[in-house]
Every structure is written in structure tokens, then in C-alpha cells.
Amino acid sequence: MCIRDSLTFNVWHDVMMFGPFVLAQLIIALIAAHNAVQHRRLLAAKHQIDSYARQLEQANHRKDLFLIRGAHELRTPLTTILGEAQRIRRSQEKAERTGTPALLGKNQVEMIEARAQELRALLEVLIDLSRLRAEDAPLRPGPCDFGTLCREIVEKQRTVSGRLLTFTCPPDPIMLQADCARLSQVVINLVKSAIQYAQENTVIAVSIRVEPSEVVLQVHYDAPTLYQEHPGQLSPYTEAMFGEGWGLGLTLSQEIVERHGGHMEVEVSDSKGVTCSVRLPFQTG
Predict the structure, then answer these.
(1) What is the pTM of this model?
(2) Contact at 8 Å (CB) between 266 and 275?
(3) In percent, how much of the chain has pLDDT > 90?
(4) Under 8 Å between Cβ of 185 and 144
(5) pLDDT tens track for 71-125
(6) Among 169, 230, 168, 219, which residue's Cα sits nearest to residue 197?
(7) Neighbour tally for 146: CB within 10 Å
(8) Of 188, 186, 196, which is closest to residue 241 (Cα–Cα)?
(9) N or C: which end of the chain has fewer CB within 10 A?
């Protein structure tokens, strides 16, 4: 074999031996470059998403502050309306004693005052909800006997409403590290909602059960027919309660529960009625 043939053989031998390794390294380099480009794109997209998230959070914060200020502004004319309604009611009572004609009928005055009181209550809930969402009202956690809290609320609402409320709870104390005042709002809202929407002369069942990592509160009641003749079409009752969210009271309750690291849900069924469930962890945060 001549020198030229020997060199050619050696070159091809080297190519056959090292070529796959070189090709593999080239492919790896191309993949690494592609991944680097993709990584930069993903990083840029993440920065953009983070920027949008910050802008959305700021917009929500401004919205909550606007609602708080707007609700505070509405307090003034509402206070005037309530004051005038009470003044007219006193004048009416005086007119009844003296036998002189009254400006308005008794029912009209009572209706004005009642609606104004309802509006005031809604404004207070709106302010409270907005303050929570704006983180202007931090939770004040501490030892909270959840069983005792629920029992006292059920007993009070039973007395005030005259409705048949039952309460089931384990005998031992159920201690949570939570804001007791805020959880009281949740329980009161759930029980009052049940009293408002439950069928007359039916039982409203409030119960608590303890699971390994959480406590579960349930408020169950029978409601009027939930669905119309056509499947999927809610009755006027259900539209009023669930059609446009849960209402301010239940929305506030949901916010409080979630701030405690818990979860709240409402199950609606023609056969089983309405069940409001609240799950609260023993350790929050």
C-alpha cells in the first residue's frame, strides 16, 4: 500500500471512528442553543405575565379603595333618609295621639325606614368586603372554640327567628387558630341565609364534624322548587340566591374563609335541598 493510500485509509478510519461523536456534539450544541432561545422567550413571557399580574393587582386594589370611598360617601345621604323617616314616624305617632292627619301612612313610613336600614346593612357589608380585599382589615388570629361559637349563634338565631334549627357537634372543644370575630360573621351569614330561603315549617340543620386536618361546618335546609320545568333553568328563588353570585353576605363569608386558608361551597339539588359547607384547617397561614 502506498503512502497516499495509507493516508486516505487513515483519514476515513478517523472519520468513521470520530464522526458520530462530532455529529452528536454538533446536535447537542444545536439543541442547547435552541433551548437557550426558548428559555429566553419563556423568561420574557414570564416577566410580561408578572407585569400584567402586578397591573391587575393594582387595578383591583384601586377598585376596592374606590368602593370603600363610594360606600362611605353613600352613608351621608342614607343617614339623612333614615333621620327623616324616623322624624316622620315620630310626627305620625304624635298625630295619632292628637287625632290630626298624618303626612304618610304608617306602613309607608315603616317601609321607607326598613328599606333604608337594609341599604345601610348592605353598605356596611360592601365596605367590609372591600377592606378585606384591599388588605386594609387584617385578620387577628387567636384561640377560637369553633364549636361553642357556632352553638351560641344557632341558639340566638333560633330565638330571634322562631325557626326550627338543630345543631350537631362533637362534645369536645374544637380549637382553631383563627379570627373568632370574622368566623362569627361567616356562621351568622350562613344561618341567616338559610332562615331567609328555607321553606316554612322545615328544619334547618347546622352540623360540625372534625376531620384529621380540618373542621367542616354544614348548614342544610330544604328550599322551594329549585328548577323550572325545563332542565337547567333555575327557579326565581334560585336566581335570587345564586343567579348573580352568592350575594354580598355570602361573598364576604367566602372571602373570610379563604383568608383563613379554607374553602366554602354551596350544593343545590332538587332532591337534597341546599347545603352550604365551610372547611377550615386547624392550622392557618
Answers:
(1) 0.62
(2) yes
(3) 27
(4) no
(5) 666 677 777 777 777 777 777 777 777 766 656 666 777 777 777 777 777 777 7
(6) 219
(7) 23
(8) 196
(9) N
Count CA atoms within 13 Å of residue 184 on its CB side.
13
Q: In sequence order, what are the residues at sequence separation of 6 or more whose Cβ sits closer than 8 angstroms to the Cβ of residue 77?
A: none
- One-letter amino acid of 95: A
User: Which has the closest alpha carbon to 150: 86, 208, 213, 220?
Assistant: 208
Collapsed DSSP state (helix, strand, coil) of residue 80: helix
| pLDDT, tens only, 95-104 | 777 766 656 6
Residue listed under C-alpha cell 361553642:
148
Query: In terms of Cα–Cα distance, which of 210, 209, 204, 207 is closest to 223?
Result: 204
Could you tell me which residues are beta bridge partners of residue 273?
269
Q: Which residue, among 179, 191, 198, has the nearest Cα to 154 in the 3D structure?
A: 191
Of residues 182, 81, 72, the one with CA closest to residue 127: 72
